[in-house]
Amino acid sequence: MRIYQESDYEAMSRRAANLISAEVIRNPACVLGLATGSTPVGTYKQLAVWSQKGDFSFKEVTTVNLDEYKGLAPTHDQSYRYFMQANFFDHIDIDAAKTHIPDGLAADPGAECARYDELIRSLGYADLQLLGLGHNGHIGFNEPCDNFVKATHVIDLAESTIAANARFFSSADDVPRQALTMGIGCIMAARRVLLIASGADKADAVYNAFCGPITPFCPASILQLHNDMVLVGDKAALSKLVAAGVPVYE
Ligand SMILES: O=P(O)(O)OC[C@H]1O[C@](O)(CO)[C@@H](O)[C@@H]1O
């Protein structure tokens, strides 16, 4: 595993954008696994700036997002489809037909999960999977539980996740209680995983994920077994790893 320690959120975003753009330049028709949440916003902004300058193009890139809230329409301003359009896709030259996100309104969510798994498999899995990290160690919406769930599935969101995401809704009551999430199987099948983390409030989650035991009670801990894992964090998020003596690139 390679760990980059950056000074702050901006530097973390730039480093992550560098790694993603390197992938797109190397393989213009790559498959990118993408994430939502506040952490990747700066990364998407930086990628859009560079591609608008003409440094590289997303025309041939295919994207697969990790998750979507169950019950939210793509036009809902808190849906992850809306987030991706507003924060990334509307600012780059990507082909809309090549951007994939689970359908939160599917009449049969189980069938939608199976379709999504098959889609990712048929694409040959992600060349690079971008991940944020939940305070409880979740990746995508794979919440802590007593087993790792391999396939795309419908998940009951943890109370702590609902509370953390309430800031984006009018109240905690408005946060959907379920989501469709890529499982651990597709995440681990990605050729490279890039996890980004920022802020002191993520220091425990980062430490537990990469210094703690590999356990489904901290879903991100499975990434210790990935053979091309890159962690990019700012100083605050990596503080407990560094204090434990884990070597980092600066
Ligand atoms: O980047 P944030 O907003 O801290 O969120 C971290 C994680 O939580 C989620 O937003 C879901 O709660 C994930 O999409 C993300 O990876």
Automatic annotation (TrEMBL):
It is an enzyme of class 3 (hydrolase). Residues 10-226 form the Glucosamine/galactosamine-6-phosphate isomerase domain. Coiled coil: none annotated. GO terms for molecular function: glucosamine-6-phosphate deaminase activity; identical protein binding. GO terms for biological process: carbohydrate metabolic process; glucosamine catabolic process; N-acetylglucosamine catabolic process; N-acetylneuraminate catabolic process. It catalyses: alpha-D-glucosamine 6-phosphate + H2O = beta-D-fructose 6-phosphate + NH4(+). Signal peptide: none annotated. GO terms for cellular component: cytoplasm. Its EC number is 3.5.99.6. Catalyzes the reversible isomerization-deamination of glucosamine 6-phosphate (GlcN6P) to form fructose 6-phosphate (Fru6P) and ammonium ion. This is Glucosamine-6-phosphate deaminase. It comes from Intestinimonas butyriciproducens. The gene is nagB.
